[in-house]
Each structure stands twice: as C-alpha cells, then as structure tokens.
Amino acid sequence: MILIVEDNPPLMALWVDRLQHHGYVAVGATTGREAIGVAIEGTPDLVVMDMNLPDMSGFDLVAALRPLGSFPIVAVTGAELEAAEMTRLGFAETHLKPVFPSAMLAIADRLMPTVSRRSPKASP
Q: Total domain count for the chain?
C-alpha cells in the first residue's frame, strides 16, 4: 500500500487515483494524524508526504512513522531542502513541487519493494 499524505484534497485525490489506475493500492490522508492512523491500521510499503501539513510538520510525521516500519518515505515540498539533511532524517527521496501524476507513478515504480504489490489487472 502506498500512503499519500497531502493537505490539498484535490491533489491528494489525483495522485491516489493515478496510482490506483496503474494497479497500486493507494490511500490518501490530508493530516499527519490521519496518516498515522492509516499507517497503524496497515503498514504502508511506501509513504509520499507533503512537508507542510495543517496539524504537524513533515519532520514530526516522519518521527511518528519511523517506529512503524522501514518503508521508504518520500518528501514532497514547495521549499528547497538540503538533500543530505533529508537523507539523514530518513527520507528516501525529496521532490520539489509541483509533482505531476506521471512523476508520482515513477516514484512508486522506483521505490515499491516488489512489482508483485501491483494488482493482477494492472496495465503495464
């Protein structure tokens, strides 16, 4: 499962829809607390998250998610962040907005642990 954490509901829905259309199981959350709840219910294989959430910073969310598993976490942000610092904090990748749906799909294809995570009816 891919957890998309984005406080802009239309953008979050677009990313989730695009991933699902390509056979991934994707779930969206618009707040840090909602994301933590989703991750507790079913550990994600990948988290793609905005760094500026309404209820907590992306850094606080990473700190809360990290004890739940060793899944990759990707930061999506409107602000330039130091790549080495982001890696040290546990991010697999950092992407500057805007991140188009095709780029979101490329992130998933690159970082999902196995292709078998896709549903059998997925298109190539």
A: 1
Cβ-count burial of 93 within 10 angstroms (0-12 exposed, 13-18 middle, 19+ buried)? middle
> Lowest-confidence range among 23-32, 64-73, 74-83?
74-83
Six token digits for residue 80: 């330039």
At 8, list the tokens.
Answer: 């802009």
Please report, for the domain that includes residue 30, its CATH number: 3.40.50.2300
* 114 inside domain: no
Tokens of 21: 């259309």
Q: How far apart are the first and last CA of the chain?
A: 18
Host domain of residue 33: 2-109
Global pTM? 0.87
